[in-house]
Amino acid sequence: MKLLIFLAIFLVGPCQVQAKAVFAHFMVGNAANYSISNWENDISLAQPAHIDAFALNIAYNDPTSADSLLNAFYAANSLGFKLFLSFDYAGNGPWPEEDVYNGQPFVSTFEDWSSLGAKAALEPGVADGLFSWAAWPWGGNDMNTYTDASYLQFLIGLPYMMPASPWFFTNLPGYNKNWLWRGDDLWYDRWQQILFVQPEFVEIISWNDYGESHYIGPLYDNAFALFTIGQGPYNYAANMPHDGWRLFLPFVIDTYKNGIASITQEGLVSWYRLNPATTCATGETTGNTASQLQIEFEPYGIVQDKVFYSALLASSATVTVSIGGVVQTGTWENAPGGGIGIYHGSVPFNGDTGEVIVTISRSGTYQLEHRPL
Ligand SMILES: *[C@@H]1O[C@H](CO)[C@@H](O)[C@H](O)[C@H]1NC(C)=O
C-alpha cells in the first residue's frame, strides 16, 4: 500500500482543469462481497462528506477485483461519483515488467518509491505528481509537515497529493504486520496542516482498510476476510464504527477548497482507546516499525491515555468529560480564529475507567453530548 505514483483514470469527463479534490483510499479486496447496492451505500456516504472520488486499491493478480470493479463503476456512474485505480504492489515483488488488466495492457510500477524518496521518483519523465504515504507521526511526536515539505520541494509545482489519516494500528502476523503509529490528535492536526499547505489533492487513508484501523467508512460483517487471511489475533474492527470522523469533513474540505465553509449544525466527535495503554501485554505490537526502517518503541510509550474531542461550534462553549461518572472540565487546546469553526482538545484518563460521556454546554445548558455507541 505504498505506491506513490498515482494514476488518475476518471470516469466522468477529461480532467484538464486542475482543481482541488479530496479522495479516499478504498481497499477493493475488502469489497469482494459487495453488491451494487453496497457500493451505492458507500458512495452515498462519501458524497455528503464532500469526498470527490475513491482511489480503488487493487492488488496484483487478485481474481476478485474485476467483478468488484464492474459493480463499483456501475454504482458510481448512477450516482455521479468518481473512481480511479490505485495499483498496490507493496510487499511481495518482484513483479513482471508489464501486465494485462481486463484485456488492456498497463505498465506496472515496481519500485518502492517511498523508500527512494521524492527526488528519485521525479527523475525526468517518471511521474506527473506524487502521493506521499507519510500520513502518521514518528514515535511519540505529533504530526508535522516535514515530509510534505520535502515532496513539495522536489515537485517544484507538479501536483502533490497530501495524505490524511486518523490513526494506525495493525496486528496481522499473516502479512508480517504488527505495529501502531500515534493517532491521538492526528485527525484534527492533519486537516489544519492541509488547510495551511493547500496541496492540489488530498487522499484520506482510508475509507475501508479495516486491517490498519484507519477506516472512516462503514463496517460490513462480510468484509472481514483479511482478519482470517492475515491471522489477526482477533477482529479489532468489528463493532468499532469510525463514522464520526466523517462528521466535519464537509467543513474542512470546503474550507480547504474554497477558503470558506458554512456551519448548518454544530457537532461533537470524540475518540479514545478502550483501555489504558499498560492494561495488558503488548501482543508484540511495536510503536513504529523496523519494517519501514524506523526505530521501534514500546507502543505504550507513544500513545497517550486521553479522551480526544473536536467540536464544530458557532461560538465557544464548555466541554466536560465524564469517565465512569468522574467528571473533568476539559480545555480547548485549539480554537478557531474568530471563534467559529472546529475546537479541539483532550483530557487524560487519570486512571478512571468506565463509560465515557463528552458534553458541550453554554451557561450551564446542555448543547451536545457524545456517548459510545
Ligand atoms: C465474503 O463472504 C464469505 C462467505 O461469508 C466469507 O467467507 C469471505 O471471507 C467474505 N470475503 C471478504 C472479503 O470478507
Please describe what this structure looks like:
The structure is a single chain. By secondary structure, the chain is α/β, with parallel strands linked by helices. The chain has 2 domains: 5-258, TIM Barrel (Alpha-Beta Barrel); 267-370, Immunoglobulin-like (Sandwich). 19% of the residues lie in helices and 26% in strands. The chain has helices spanning 36-46, 65-79, 113-121, 146-155, 186-197, 225-229, 249-258; strands at 21-27, 53-59, 82-88, 98-101, 104-107, 130-131, 160-164, 168-172, 177-181, 201-204, 267-271, 286-287, 306-313, 318-323, 326-329, 341-348, 356-362, 365-370. α1 packs across α2. The longest helix has 15 residues, at 65-79. The protein is globular, with a radius of gyration of 21 Å. The two termini are 31 Å apart. The structure holds 2-acetamido-2-deoxy-beta-D-glucopyranose (NAG). Residues 30, 32-33, 222-225 line the site of 2-acetamido-2-deoxy-beta-D-glucopyranose (NAG).
